[in-house]
Amino acid sequence: MISSLLPEPVRRVAAWCVVFLLLTGVVAVLVRLCVIFQTAVTPVLLALLGTALLGPLHRRLIRMRVNRSLAAALTCLAVVAVFGGATYVVASVLVHTGDQILTGLRRAGQDLAEHFGAAGTSVEDLAANAEELLAKFGATAASGVITGISVVGEMIATAVLALLLSFFFLRDSDRAAATLRSLAPRQAGDMLEAMGRRAFGAVEGFMRGTTFIALIDAVCIGVGLLVLRVPGALGLAALVFVGAYIPYLGAFISGTVAVLVAFADGGWVTGLWAVGVVLAVQVLEGHVLLPMIQSRTVQMHPAVVMLAITAGAGVAGVLGMLLAVPLTAAAFGIVSELRARYTSGAPGGKPGGTPGGAPVQGS
């Protein structure tokens, strides 16, 4: 055979290339299917993220000897109350301060145009276009155009379905391990369960850590903008909180908007102070919060995160940007589990084990 004529290193490289091509093909098919069945896949992914975020509360209720179904229902009701109230507050703040923010951006564009020419004109055009789009959106919603109603209805249906799926995922989380084992041959059951636990633990850590960091960023930047008396400070803080779920890119955009509004309202002094506030919060996040959070989850290089966000945006737009990083974290968790098992030479080791022997937190 021709393969027998090739050196051993060449045969190994060829084998790994075949494996890589097969994995790439499988991933491409899965992504394509997810795009085709986006209406069904999106609620499932959102429910998994919600389950990862709410798992600690549900487990705490279980330890208090609350029935599993009742604990899942109480957890979902708490989600509706907290996130519903937070969404209402964020939306109302953005509505009431949106004009102030857009006015600030326009003034910043005019001031920058006087000093830097085309760059400032672009900012001014961005603010004008944003105001025009908001006006058109408001007019569309008010006139009750069928397209607008269908979009709102689809969003509501997705949210309700994701909430119901979260209830079932939380209630039946104790059966997840048995379900994973049933999907694999007997010899691979332990490994599949371990990979599932590691992937879910990575997503759970990412969601909890991101929410914690988003809250701290929003509070710190919001307080700083209030001290500087920047108009629309609460709305800008809300943008910071929402943008934190898109790592790096979201913080950059929301911070830039806050600085431009502060510059337009208070001039260079206020703008520079706003830059200092935003940079101080980013330094706190990058050197204190992120290392502390990532040390308990899967560490990902910033370049990998940016590539994941870009790929997610290309596949599913803003929703893809939000889902790309937790899905990448899950993939890194699976790879970490496989590496820990096969580099230690014990593929039949303890499910969910780490290189240091500490158990991985699961659902």
Automatic annotation (TrEMBL):
Does Hydrolase count among this protein's keywords?
A: no
Ranges that cross the membrane: 12-30, 36-57, 69-95, 145-170, 205-228, 234-264, 271-293, 305-335
Q: Which UniProt keywords apply?
A: Cell membrane, Membrane, Transmembrane, Transmembrane helix, Transport
Q: Which domain of life is it from?
A: Bacteria
Query: Do you know which Pfam families this protein is assigned to?
Result: AI-2E_transport
Q: How does it sit in the membrane?
A: Multi-pass membrane protein
The cellular location(s) given in this protein's UniProt record come to: Cell membrane
**Is Acyltransferase a UniProt keyword of this protein?**
no
What the record says about family reads: Belongs to the autoinducer-2 exporter (AI-2E) (TC 2.A.86) family.
Q: What is this protein called?
A: AI-2E family transporter
